Inverse folding.
């Protein structure tokens, strides 16, 4: 598996949730959608401050970034190993959260055949402590094929003037995610020389 699938996209969203307008994360960084910041290359502030976006746009930008910015280094880390869908989903979730797939010892151990060492080393990336739950879920998915996603996401409101996310509401999003794979032009039509993903950055 070397492509993003709806199930992979939904798994990562299950860990992150969605915020439809810009908010400040735990360290004060302006963030939006599925944990997107300016560092991704897609400007968040002031573009989305006090400007909630449709879920289709939030998810569409997230998918673009996942494919263009995060998938290539994850595939490079696997080297000649052909990842399963579960392995790719877990590795992408890890990299989206840490940005560290290129220097993580657990993936090198896995590629070298040290499965037990890789399983143990993945949990070395569980700081601060609240990340342990996420690492355990990624570990269970990568090594045991146990998925967390159920086709829903917590969609958060933003409290003001603090701009902190609050009051998450669980919403079914499987159909929205799948539609962006199956019938993307109906959501965001392509124009001359550009894909619907590319137009999200205009």
């Amino acid at each position: 598996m070397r492509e993003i699938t709806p199930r992979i996209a939904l798994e990562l969203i299950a860990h992150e949730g969605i915020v439809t307008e810009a908010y400040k994360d735990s360290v004060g960084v302006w963030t939006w959608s599925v944990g997107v910041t300016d560092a991704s290359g897609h400007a968040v502030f002031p573009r989305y401050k006090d400007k909630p976006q449709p879920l289709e746009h939030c998810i569409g930008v997230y998918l673009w970034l996942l494919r263009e910015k995060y998938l290539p280094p994850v595939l490079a880390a696997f080297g000649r190993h052909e990842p399963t869908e579960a392995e790719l989903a877990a590795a992408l979730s890890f990299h989206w959260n840490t940005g560290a797939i290129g220097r993580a010892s657990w993936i090198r151990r896995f590629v070298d055949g040290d499965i037990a060492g890789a399983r143990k080393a993945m949990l070395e990336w569980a700081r601060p402590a609240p990340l342990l739950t996420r690492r355990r879920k990624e570990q269970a998915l990568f090594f045991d094929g146990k998925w967390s996603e159920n086709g829903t996401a917590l969609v958060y409101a933003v409290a003001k003037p603090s701009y902190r996310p609050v009051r998450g509401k669980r919403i079914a999003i499987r159909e929205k995610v799948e539609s962006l794979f199956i019938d993307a032009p109906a959501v965001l039509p392509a124009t001359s020389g550009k894909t619907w993903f590319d137009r999200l950055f205009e």
